[in-house]
Amino acid sequence: MNDSAEQKPGNDNRSLTGKLLLLAVAMFGFGYMLVPLYNVFCEITGFGGRTNTEAVSRQENPDYTRSIRVEFVTTVNEYAPWEFAAERDSMEVTPGKMYYANFTAKNLAGEKKIAQAVPSVAPISASGHFKKIECFCFTNQEFQANEERAMPLQFIVDPDLPEYVDTITLQYTFYDTVRVSANGGS
């Protein structure tokens, strides 16, 4: 009876070691797959600003029977030295027609800064139907010390937007992406 009792802790240790090793391999695999999974998630949902992947340069057949409210929400990363706002809080649009909206950003720092606006669209079902033609969010924005500028957005809401969607919220978060000193170095 003592022999079996003494062997049991050794078996338990091997079993625990095997489980921990399996858990470590699973965690590594999950970490390795996280970026591709996130990219697929963003493509499907439009999260992270991936609202359209192909260029749109023309108006589509407008649906004059519908009116969609597009709301603009702006935020600034907590530690970023910026002011960032939409010219207006919302607008009524006709699906298929091209529209323009303006945003304003100001660098509050006494040095050159580079920023990036990251968009997201809600509800998720509208993300594939909100097509940005021109957007300041496509590239990093370089601002001189205390510079303020208008930042245009040109967009179309696809007429194939599901009927139950009557409001689209476009939200931008403005981030300080690179700290650049006044002499141009990093």
Q: Residue share in helices?
A: 10-25%
Please tell me how large the radius of gyration is: 25 Å
Mean pLDDT: 81
Arrangement of strands in the largest sheet: 3-1-9-5-7
- What string, H for helix and E for strand, traces the elements in order? HEEEEEEEEE
The total of helices stands at: 1
From the spread of the alpha carbons, the general shape counts as flat
Structural class based on helices, strands and sheet pairing: alpha+beta
Number of strands: 9
Q: Which blocks of ≥5 consecutive residues have pLDDT under 50?
A: 53-57, 180-186
**What is the beta-strand fraction?**
35-45%
Largest sheet: 5 strands, mixed
Could you tell me how far the N terminus lies from the C terminus, measured between alpha carbons in angstroms?
A: 71 Å
What brief labels describe this structure?
single chain, 186 residues, alpha+beta, 5-stranded mixed β-sheet, 4-stranded antiparallel β-sheet, flat, disordered C terminus
